[in-house]
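User: Predict the structure for this protein chain, please.
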Amino acid sequence: MTRTCEHCREPLAIMARSHARTCSPRCRKALSRATKRAAGTAPELPAELTTTARWIRYDSTKRPLTTAGMAASSTDASTWSTYADAVNSPAGVGVGFVLSEADDVVCIDLDHCIRPDGSLESWAAPIVRAADTTYVEVSPSGDGLHIWGRADVRQGRRIRRQDGTAVEVYGTGRYITVTGRRHGSCPSTLADLSALISKLTA
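Assistant: Here is the predicted structure, written as structure tokens:
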């Protein structure tokens, strides 16, 4: 898979170091400025996430990393960090939040649900409407959604649809990528998704 610059999205040189994130010093500086700006927008994310030290970095293959660039684990708290430390780390290509049994934070992951024109697929729209007053953001791929909320989910579920897309529900032992790309005008709060999840997994 071709690696691309995180700032300009141009392909990285074939001989670029494995930890390289940008194609030039200029892009590296621009990305650093953008990251610092992102760190200042923490209130845009739910406080339940940004005030909890369960953050990791991840690489281009979605492998979890510590802020120092070492291997991290969604079940080893010693490899997690604060939100501020995670967003300011140069390791990997992005940040993620670890779901844990310590609380009831959950995430519903909708694959390939955003059309090229930005509208939602017909199967996904009712799910997003049912989520209503909770935080929803666009996934790194740009065509999926992560619906964040609260519920008692101790066993993750992957519900495969006939068209090849999937709805995933997770509550523990897994990290979820966080982009900060809010979907629509959703609030920065986590709502109770128990009823919605029960319907999806019935």
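The two ends are 37 Å apart (CA to CA).
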